[in-house]
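FYI - complex with NDP, inputs then prediction.
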Amino acid sequence: MSYVDEVYEYVVAKNPAQPEFHQAVKEVLDSLRVVIDANEDEYRKDALLERLVTPEHQILFRVPWVDDKGQVQVNNGFRVQFNSAIGPYKGGLRFHPSVNLGISKFLGFEQIFKNSLTGLPIGGGKGGSDFDPKGKSDREIMAFCQSFMTELFRHIGADTDVPAGDIGVGGREIGYLFGQFKRIRDSYEGVLTGKGLTYGGSLARTQATGYGLLYLTQELLKCNGSDIKGKTIAVSGAGNVAIYAIEKAQQLGGKPVTCSDSTGWIYDPEGIDVELLKEIKEVKRARLSEYAAARKSAEYHEKKNGEHGVWTVKCDVALPCATQNELDLEDAKALVANGVQAVCEGANMPTTIEATEYFQQNKVMFVGGKAANAGGVATSALEMSQNSERLSWTFEEVDQKLQQIMVNIYHNIDNAAKQYGCEGNYVAGANIAGFLKVAEAMKAQGIV
Ligand code: NDP
Ligand code: 2IT
């Protein structure tokens, strides 16, 4: 059996009941065959792949907190510090009822390669909690965040591990987490990114993942003789990534016509009104049905089991920006039948492996999340740089750097795919380019 297959079997055996982690590892290992097979004995002797798929630390903790009725609630906290070969652990915190150790590991594993692709010195990590922020008061959110940080603080630091936001964790949560860290540690340091602008946050971090997704998509289209301008775009999600993807798509002359949340989806053939969407999601924290109520051109569709939602709409470009495995083979078939040209992932692993293969077989340009959504963490690394030099850069400076990083990522993954004989396979290109830097750093640092 090849070394790659051996290690995949090892991962499945050692990590039972963690299907998302298996899926993330499978995608990477399959791409790495061309690299590993050529030097199989050397990699096997060093157990490089076993080390790569085993987190350096996995931290699990209890998070008790008191709700508004005086009832004590208990949640589970997670932080997976996956790989620090090229820099301090870096990656978001997710607060969602579906979070468990396997989800944290899949996200932490992907983060290793994504962070490597940014070209910046950041290792891979991820964490969060099965806490559900929906319907909670501000006081409950604060109580939860303070309790969460009261455990997490001993494991993180500006040069150790720097968490940030993800699903269910935005500016409000980062503020409460930062305040509690500072209070316990008595240290004012860049221990979290995505901070508010009055206390060490970076301009353009809020926009960075969505904007970065569009900068990469634009470069992809341009290098393949096309342009965002005039394109109809289907977007899923209605959170941080989706909102700023929609905003930048419009600035580049595209027409995003859909968005979605966990209860339903919007089709707005006149183009999404992004200011209205921000008001509903960022200010009121309300459901998407309010969007349709406020806008004549929009249709609202309640989410039904087995229904394919935004992916049934005819579009040229699809940008999944909600959550993992939200775009399956049936969705891919519908998109291809409707003539989609490009699919770029704003979310982490939103496309199933079968759907990805279907796009590739049907010559749809497909860029996975490790490359396409790397703008968020890249700008987090820029926030870390600003914190270290105790300076703040202008919006234009940060945005300019973000654009350059996304253009570089596109060319790096494109070149890696060409160099390893799989031109146009941007998934393989990203996995290979991300891996090579981490593997070299791991080798140089000995058996650790
Ligand atoms: P938000 O919490 O701001 O928004 C998430 C959106 O996705 C919401 O509209 C939410 O709907 C929807 N959603 C989440 N889970 C589900 C689900 N299980 N079923 C249906 N809809 C769901 O998160 P972000 O926008 O920050 O994150 C979106 C994706 O992008 C995630 O995969 C995240 O890992 C990834 N990402 C985020 C980055 C960042 O900087 N924030 C960087 C790189 C990737 P509802 O509100 O109803 O739950
Ligand atoms: O998935 C991701 O890259 C993020 N949620 C952002 C991580 C970060 O550290 O900014």
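The chain is about 50% helix and 15% strand. The two ends are 26 Å apart (CA to CA).
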